[in-house]
Amino acid sequence: MDRWKRCVAKNYRLALATFLTNFCRTASRQAVSMDRELLQHLSKDEIRQELRGFPSTAVEAVLQLQQKASTARLQNAVLQILAFYLPRGADRGNLSATPLTSRLREDLGVDSLTLSEAAFKMEELFNVRIENAELANIQTVADLTAFAEAKLFRESGKPSPRP
Predict the structure, then answer these.
(1) What is d(CA 38, CA 102) in angstroms, rounded to the nearest whole number?
(2) Is residue 50 a part of any domain in this protein?
(3) Are 107 and 28 in the same domain?
(4) Which residues contact 59 (CB under 8 A, 6 or more apart)?
(5) Is the CB of residue 114 less than 8 Å from the CB of residue 85?
(6) Dihedral (C-alpha) 55, 56, 58, 61: value to the nearest 10 degrees?
(7) Does 83 lie in the same domain as 110?
(8) 70-125 pLDDT, tens per residue?
């Protein structure tokens, strides 16, 4: 009986090691392929079409992000998209110069609808899924940019790019 248990335990460990090895190889291949997907699923013309009506600064920010991903470029693209959806009367100027500690609701006038619209556009552009519940925790500009970075880089297994 002991011999049978040792044999089963040995086979179990071997099967588990094989499974983990294959899983890690598959995950690593998926992370590499996902790295290529950041805005690569859209051509430049498709990005321009997707952002029709947006200011040229927003279009350029997204195109620059497509050329070379970086934290600074991602932050700029996200803020440019958000600026498009700001309510009338809000300062839509250079949102990139806004302090990261600025509160979305109180300082910028962003309500839940504005944030949802921006999130929908980011879903389309960046090919990610954003749940409404995830948006509830976003209070500041820093929260928003950290959320976007986590969605695009950390959750997909990609390392965060350098600024």
Answers:
(1) 27
(2) yes
(3) no
(4) 47, 48, 51
(5) yes
(6) -170
(7) yes
(8) 888 988 999 999 989 987 766 656 677 788 898 999 888 888 899 999 999 999 89
